[in-house]
Amino acid sequence: MLEKLRNAFQILTRDADVERALKEVQRALISADVDVATVAELVKEIRSAEVPKGVPKSRYVMKLLYDRLVNILGGSGRPFPVVPQRILLIGLYGSGKTTTAAKLGHWLQKRGLDVLLVAADTHRPGAHEQLEQLAEKAGLKFFGIKGEKDPVKIVEEALKKKADVYIVDTAGRTSLDGELVKEVQEIKRTLLPEKTLLVVPADMGQAAGREAERFAREVGIDGVIVTKMDGSGKGGGALSACAKASVPVYFIGTGEHIRDFELFDANRFISRLLGVPDVEKLAEMAEEAEIDIEDILEGEYDINKFYAQIAATRKMGPIEKVLSTLGIQSVPKELAKLTEEKFKKYDAIYKSMTKYERAHPEVLQEPSRIRRIAKGSGTSEEDVRAFIRDFKRSEKLMKKFRKKSSLKRFEKMLASGRFPGAFR
């Protein structure tokens, strides 16, 4: 869905072909399992819109499309309280509750809270061990009673432990039956959670909305976490269905790693499609990795900045994800393949350069310098040349980010006062 929507916005920007862009949007949303009636209404509204005098139609349609997509996906995100609390995670089999418990715990821990993960899934074999392993990996506290069949007793004992946040992972079922409803209600009476969150996988598509409505009606929920957004083409359908059901989506899971987890905000989600940097998300990633991102992005871009960027990427996640947050969607494959082995070589190459070479990369064209650096770093001359090529690719991307022509166009649009309410 994301790639098709991105193509639609590019068609509007590059070719000003409104009809072709709308057809691309239609295909993208329907393939993502967004309700057909909702898609038809969106296209009809945009086609019939009156364009203000003096405003290019493609520009106006882009703004209108942005606003409507944000609305379909739920509007501005709701802040999740970073306070001491008790959180109950519920959902069906295979929704990703256990992994989500660790991701949410890690997210809250990074914001200064002492988190205890509680294994109260007494049905699924291996659930206790899985959560314990995830807790250890994320550096979180864990509580469970192996072999105990009563989840209420586990919760009672867990509450005797000291923590700021208790996150309780519960058992799932193939469907919301009477047995599951009874179990969740009993746990809720003991836990008295401030937040009961339903975990649904993105591949449920529109069914996520119906599932949220049923859980809300039967056991009561405060919001939803949509998992597996990276591996499903139906994520848009799941998000839009929850919005239509008036159930807030707090978080989305975007990958396998603990850090692949973020607050959901439709404004930011759609803005990234347009190539607009998500400065807030970048700041969050940098803060978690304890990186001064401004120092990397400001001033002359030299080898020192490139090395700092490599180090930052290792902490913040895959380079594609970091650059996507900067609004850069097309990352050269060679630059994206900065594997751990390559990182080690680049670390040695960087440390074998003089201060002058790091600050003046243009001198690295000299064969004698390349030979000396290769010898000093224990790598080959081709490795050094690969380092220089990747530096140049990265330098081009940084120039692209700083110029950010698409962002400037939107800033001018907003400054004109013609389109109030955009990108708030």
Structure description:
Helix 6 links the parallel strand 2 and strand 3. The chain is flat and about 75 Å long. It folds into 3 domains: 71 residues, Four Helix Bundle (Hemerythrin (Met), subunit A), CATH 1.20.120; 180 residues, P-loop containing nucleotide triphosphate hydrolases (Rossmann fold), CATH 3.40.50; 125 residues, 434 Repressor (Amino-terminal Domain). The C terminus is likely disordered. Helix 7 runs parallel beside helix 8, helix 9 crosses helix 10 and helix 14 runs antiparallel to helix 17. With 424 residues, it is α/β, with parallel strands linked by helices. The chain is built from 21 helices and 8 strands. It has an 8-stranded mixed sheet, sandwiched between helices.
Query: How much of the sequence is in beta strands?
Result: 5-15%
According to CATH, the homologous superfamily of the largest domain is: P-loop containing nucleotide triphosphate hydrolases
User: Counting H and I runs of at least 4 residues, what is the number of helices?
Assistant: 21
The multimeric state of the shown protein is single chain
Low-confidence stretches: 405-424
Question: Strand order, biggest sheet?
Answer: 3-2-4-1-5-6-7-8
**What is the CATH architecture term of the largest domain?**
3-Layer(aba) Sandwich
Describe the largest sheet.
8 strands, mixed
Q: What is the radius of gyration computed over CA atoms, rounded to a whole number of angstroms?
A: 25 Å
**Using DSSP, what is the number of strands?**
8
